[in-house]
């Protein structure tokens, strides 16, 4: 009798697994069945938004479904990011994230708060871009070089302002690396995103900003901004006259603003695979590549184990940087 019960139970379990596999496969084949919301956790105009627009257009073409970009700003990126962590895990809500995805939960812990989300609530689809950051100032600023900027900042502690997308945002972490390495006391002015910070810089109410190349490229071309240095290991193509911090004697000052697409962790793997396949094809195609290159952020596509390794290493490095910043009052 026990043997009959075990056999019956095994058959039922096998049938349930088969039905689940069929249902999952059917769901993947039907995906997407409606619009895919691509959430950007920052206002329009910043690096995530600049990347999201052409990526969304490419996915719309691939899936023949709307892919609206939804700017859900607040708390330096926490509000929009946490909303995706809580979204239904069906592939119809995705997050176009920056490297601050790793930073914000650690910053919340340092501030004595429970994180609104954790990194393990997301499944990585792929990395899209990975830009070294640029230090930019208004064209009318007195500094013609990094050396002049550093010398002036050392002579006037707390007088030079810089903006960011919020406390512990990627732009804040990058500048904190510089101020720590160079022994500078700059006045940090947090905004609700990189777009508003850039607007403040262009209006002359800020003195400096760390930014990915994309948002500042048009203003550099128009002569409204000047780039003093970059956080990359090598000079950025198209910005060959801009030195790296490493060249100028700051070997620890290296930072990248990357963008990647994520979905809630419980999203079925076949759905993730369909989304990843469409994104891979778009990143390999000329239209998206041209759009991102024109925006100053060339494709640096990674997926699977390569992206997982990159994300884990970057996550650990950024957490160490946030811990060095410490609690922000």
TrEMBL record:
Write down the CDD domains for this protein, in alphabetical order: PBP2_Bug_TTT (cd07012)
> Which region is the signal sequence?
1-21
Name of this chain's protein = Tat pathway signal protein
Entry-linked Gene3D superfamilies: Bordetella uptake gene, domain 1, Periplasmic binding protein-like II
Q: Which residues cross the membrane?
A: none
Q: Which UniProt keywords apply?
A: Signal
In terms of Pfam families, this protein maps to: TctC
Q: Which domain of life is it from?
A: Bacteria
Keyword Lyase listed? The answer is no
SUPFAM superfamilies listed in its UniProt record: Periplasmic binding protein-like II (SSF53850)
Family to which this protein belongs: Belongs to the UPF0065 (bug) family.
């Amino acid at each position: 009798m026990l043997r009959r019960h075990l056999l019956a139970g095994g058959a039922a379990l096998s049938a349930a697994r088969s039905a689940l596999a069929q249902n999952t496969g059917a769901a993947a084949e039907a995906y997407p069945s409606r619009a895919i919301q691509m959430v950007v956790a920052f206002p329009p105009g910043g690096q995530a938004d600049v990347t999201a627009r052409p990526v969304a257009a490419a996915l719309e073409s691939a899936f023949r479904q709307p892919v609206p970009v939804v700017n859900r700003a607040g708390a330096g990126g926490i509000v929009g990011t946490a909303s995706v962590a809580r979204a239904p895990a069906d592939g119809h809500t995705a997050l176009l994230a920056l490297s601050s995805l790793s930073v914000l939960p650690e910053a919340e812990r340092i501030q004595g708060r429970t994180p609104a989300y954790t990194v393990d609530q997301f499944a990585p689809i792929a990395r899209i871009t990975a830009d070294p950051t640029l230090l930019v100032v208004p064209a009318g600023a007195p500094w013609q070089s990094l050396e002049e900027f550093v010398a002036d900042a050392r002579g006037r502690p707390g007088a030079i302002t810089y903006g960011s997308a919020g406390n512990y945002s990627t732009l804040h972490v990058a500048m904190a690396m510089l101020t720590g390495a160079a022994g500078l006391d700059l006045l940090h002015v947090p905004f609700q995103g990189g777009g508003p910070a850039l607007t403040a810089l262009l209006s002359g109410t800020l003195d400096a900003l760390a930014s990915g190349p994309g948002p500042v490229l048009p203003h550099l071309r128009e002569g409204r901004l000047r780039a003093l240095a970059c956080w990359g290991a090598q000079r950025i193509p198209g910005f060959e006259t801009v030195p790296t911090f490493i060249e100028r004697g700051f070997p620890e000052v290296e930072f990248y603003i990357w963008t990647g697409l994520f979905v809630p962790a419980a999203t079925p793997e076949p759905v993730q695979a369909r989304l990843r396949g469409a994104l891979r094809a778009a990143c390999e195609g000329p239209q998206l590549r041209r759009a991102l290159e024109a925006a100053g952020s060339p494709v640096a596509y990674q997926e699977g184990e390569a992206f997982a390794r990159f994300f884990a290493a970057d996550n650990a490095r950024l957490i160490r940087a946030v811990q060095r910043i410490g609690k922000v009052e």
